[in-house]
Amino acid sequence: MALTNLDRELLRRCLAKQRGAWNDFVDRFLGLIYHVVQHTAHLRSLPLKPEDTEDIAAEILLQIVANDYAVLRQFREKSSLATYLTVIARRICVHEMAKRQAAREVQPVSTNNHPEHEPEVEDNTASGIERLEEVERLLGKLPSREREVVRLHYIEGRSYEEISTTLNIPVNSIGPVLSRARKKLRADARGLPPTAKRPHASD
Fold first, then answer.
1. 90-132, pLDDT tens digit by residue?
2. CA 95 to CA 160: how far, in whole Å?
3. Are 79 and 196 in contact (CB under 8 A)?
4. Does 195 score more than 80 pLDDT?
5. Full residue range of the structural domain in which residue 11 is found
6. What pLDDT, on a 0 to 100 scale, did the predictor assign at position 138?
7. Residue 202: how many CA atoms within 13 Å on its side-chain side?
8. Residue ranges of the alpha helices (H) in 105-168?
9. Based on the domain organization, do 29 and 108 belong to the same domain?
10. Cα dihedral across residues 95, 96, 99, 101: positive or negative
11. Which of 39, 78, 145, 168 could disulfide-link to 133, CB 3.0 to 4.6 Å?
């Protein structure tokens, strides 16, 4: 999904620090940020109190503003602003939740019990941000329905039930759609037709 003129103008106003621009930004994207926080907590089986959700959402907004809107200045306008902010918000959210989980642990050495876990989250998230433009390019090659299903599930983190409601399609059709789309995207990333077989090492 391309950057809309409305979001392009809102981005310009924020970076120019025009009066009221940040309030308009918050009004437009706060709901998205809350959704990311709640969905990320659900995926990690981490119950959040309303005040926790508010705190994490506030931290996401603070990091967007930090260093003279550095996060917004790094946006290359190759995707929708909502897609970009979803990835950014999820990255911040994962770190905030990891910090909260660590703080709740009673044992002093508990943060060392799973040394491989946190770097894995960091690497996966960083990789997702770096490849966001490539994903958007590949999505543009999918049929419209497949593209929307993939975008909602993998980029916005929506559940099958949410996708079913949003797109008005049966829940049991979403899995097959995602499976077909993954095959097409993998084939396109390798430069092969979707039905082509991966060459053997001896070929």
1. 999 988 888 777 766 544 444 444 444 433 333 444 444 445 5
2. 25
3. no
4. no
5. 5-130
6. 66
7. 0
8. 117-130, 132-139, 144-150, 160-167
9. yes
10. negative
11. 78
pTM (two decimals): 0.56
Shared domain for 125 and 147, answered yes or no, is no
Which residue type does 193 have? P
Residue 101 vs residues 47, 98, 108, 118: alpha-carbon distances, Å: 11, 5, 13, 12
In 3D space, the residue among 39, 38, 13 whose CA is nearest the CA of residue 160 turns out to be: 39
CA distance 163 to 170: 9
How much is the average pLDDT of 152-181? Answer: 82
Q: Are residues 31 and 74 in the same domain?
A: yes
Q: Of 109, 130, 151, which marks where a domain is finished?
A: 130
Percentage above 90 pLDDT, the chain: 29
Domain boundary among 77, 96, 130: 130
CATH number of the domain at 120, please.
1.10.1740.10
Structurally, how many domains does the chain consist of? 2
What is the H or E stretch that residue 175 is in?
helix 174-190
Helix (H) or strand (E) holding 69: helix 50-73
